Known about the structure:
- By secondary structure, this protein is of the alpha/beta class.
- Helix content is 61%, strand content 18%.
Amino acid sequence: xxxxxxxxxxxxxxxxxxxxxxxxxxxxxxxxxxxxxxxxxxxxxxxxxxxxxxxxxxxxxxxxxxxxxxxxxxxxxxxxxxxxxxxxxxxxxxxxxxxxxxxxxxxxxxxxxxxxxxxxxxxxxxxxxxxxxxxxxxxxxxxxxxxxxxxxxxxxxxxxxxxxxxxxxxxxxxxxxxxxxxxxxxxxxxxxxxxxxxxxxxxxxxxxxxxxxxxxxxxxxxxxxxxxxxxxxxxxxxxxxxxxxxxxxxxxxxxxxxxxxxxxxxxxxxxxxxxxxxxxxxxxxxxxxxxxxxxxxxxxxxxxxxxxxx
Length: 310
């Protein structure tokens, strides 16, 4: 009888210790698996609910449908692993090593306290960021070459507006950007008036977005060429087209170099984030200014045509 009493007492003490180790607000009902010590969700396995690990690390190689929580350890989501209910580490850290976390990421420790929200994407690596930046550089250089040789007149008129009226172009671009959504809504309403128009709304919206993208790209290339003129100065090209191409390439490279440098510091989150903010800000001003210059160029061209017609 005395042995049984000791056994019951030991079980009660162990249960009380576990309750003390778990914060009061942590409800066990939402977890499909609760365990002590290190635990691994292997690759190819799916846990239908959440997983709670006490005094150990939780390594996720498979799929956790609920929350992944560790008390007194780390939550480590490895490449190919997926957590669909958020990840929490109390007295530890949440480490995403190439996996996917959807939801809140929270870790609390004696030297840190972090709360973030993840949308399920894998963390970008420095190599992937650099590859993306160089890909955009190639795309813009090809687009610039195409525009210069097949829509050179439009580009030159826009370059002239940017060179002479940069402030007005920026102001017009801001107003034009604010008018995009109302214009799209008006277009949809106009097409919805007729039965046939209802069916071609997707086509109309797609065409509108393509036209908008084309205007933005043309404007950006014009601003890039103006920047290239300022950077390159006199060129050694014997032809006007060669000089324009050199200016355009110099400007595009100048803008994209900001993104390439930011991508190179992806491994250093704070510096990388600051550089990305700088790159976004400069690119936004360039695109907005070019957008406004395209609008001004088109409007003035239209007025000249009307004047000639009269």
